[in-house]
Queue: 3 jobs
Job 1
Amino acid sequence: MSRDYQLTRFRPPPELREKISAMAKEHRRSLNSEIVFGLEFYARHIEKTKKTEEAQPGSTPSSVSQQ
């Protein structure tokens, strides 16, 4: 299954790698799985934020990004 995915290199600063590694250990995941989980969480957050901004009357993406 993992061979279905494209290899992507990721070079985080050492401090960030240590934090992600500690979180992966705490959650009993591999480093890769922890990074994927974090990216999926972030993507869901962005989508939710977009929908909330679009639902607000009078707001536009450009006016929100300039704040």
Job 2
Amino acid sequence: MTELEEVQRQLADLQSQLAFQEHTVQSLNDALAAQQQEILLLRQQLALLKQRQDEHSAQLDTGAGVGLLQEKPPHY
């Protein structure tokens, strides 16, 4: 094998490795973007739950929820 052929083979190997790495980086980027969207959705849901809990706590503090606490469940 001549020196030129060896350099061409090495160049082809490097190009192949680069293509594989680019594909891997793109796959990781896609996964990260999907996780970020899921985190944003979960944060919104958590904020909504906190708001509902705060509203419920406020109702209990004002006495509006006392009737609910004394009411028997439907299976009684």
Job 3
Amino acid sequence: MDPSDLIAQIQAAFDALADPQLSARMRAYQREQFDFLGIPTPQRRAVVTSLATAGLGQQALLDIARALWRMPFREYQYAAIDLLAHRRKALDADAVVSLLDLAQQQPWWETVDGLAAVIGDVIRLEPASLGQSQALMDRALAHDCMWVRRIAMTHQLGWRLQTDSERLFRYALALAPESEFFIRKAIGWSLRDYAKWHPDPVIAFVTRHRQQFSPLTLREALKHHPDALGACVRRSARRRARHPCVRSARSCSHPDR
């Protein structure tokens, strides 16, 4: 199929499904940042997966994704992610840079996390290029764009016991000093996801480094382990009570603060 024909088919289908009332609710949910056609996720995905995309190679898929990303309604960015996810086996490590570039265009958590899932699948499904891809993630961890750093932190979500725990923990510590909500949330989310399959190392890691993580990160990481979370909070509270500058926190320069 010609890429322009595919985009035209998506546009025609989306125009037929548009719902102005749902559009207003979707726009409000995303803090009035983006315009929406008002198409529910199941219907949108059904449109994309029903199209004949099997013959499209990596370059065509990326070109279509970029074209959809430039279109005015948010569903077109979602459709780009749906297409990339549906055809993720046609992508290789060379696509990761392009996907990171897309993540920085009109970024918000929902498109960033959708692309992170695609990137994670591409890396996981290409064991021969794992070193190359993970080196890209190492560089992404220090990127100027907060959303790219979030992708680096979350790209192993869903890897279960294939998770590179050393990299997961190293990334978590590297990003721990950041005050940005979406980074703190991503650290906790990533740790919690791995804890579903291997809880003991996560609990030990979080407990050992509890002073370095925000309360949000601790809550997210140990959400399904309330006893461990309670112990972390109690220990942090006792340590703070013993802190030599606890009564003059604003002027404190103690290295543990």
